[in-house]
């Protein structure tokens, strides 16, 4: 049975950083959530409704605000139906989305994906030529990012994606409302230095200022946390900070 303030837990009885509490959206905080747990009003179990509850459990957390806490109708942390973490590591080029994202995926015990690999060839060529993408270029890409997250509901996923504007993040959330964001924040000088020293990436330094002008930092009303790069912490430390902040967000 679910109520606001309930949580879904990553992993089983593990007490390591990988076993962090994770936000799931509203939905099972409703009659569907009680049905999924096979409960009648007053806490009495409805054995006759358990089979229907199993079916309701599959949809009980798919609607409503992405910022309310709930469970999937089962309090068993080993239940295979419990939600897995679906995290977008966001920020401008040079913020270390891929490196920190991989470290966070390892911390949480889930797969990693780089949204840059989801760009169509036309987008990659445009950026390599030093031309910023338009929103018309981005919408199909963002839709694909959201689909990848939605399709990873059983395994969890950390995906690195710039997601610079609130509208872009809203597009991702429209495809997967359970997604949570980790915003990597850093000064312009730090970001420029990082970009100048990396190889094999198609984003030239000339586009950094354009991205910073476009960036809309994660708002308090959006589901996620911010992590500062200016401490010069190593990627595993930044990943641990992100995991802890996500856990605190779920408390």
Describe this entry's structure for a reader:
It contains nine helices and seven strands, in the order ββααβαβααβαβααβα. The protein is of the alpha/beta class and 251 residues long. The chain has two domains: 1-77, no CATH class; 86-250, Rossmann fold (3-Layer(aba) Sandwich). The chain has a five-stranded parallel β-sheet with strand order 4-5-3-6-7, sandwiched between helices. Strands 1-2 form a two-stranded antiparallel sheet. The longest helix has 17 residues, at 135-151. The chain starts with 7 loop residues before the first strand and ends with a helix.
Key features of this structure:
11% strand, 7 strands, 9 helices, five-stranded parallel sheet, 251 residues, globular, Rossmann fold
In summary, what is this structure?
This protein is of the alpha/beta class. It has helices spanning 31-36, 50-57, 97-108, 121-128, 135-151, 166-175, 188-196, 208-214, 235-250, and strands at 8-9, 21-22, 86-90, 112-114, 157-160, 180-185, 224-228.
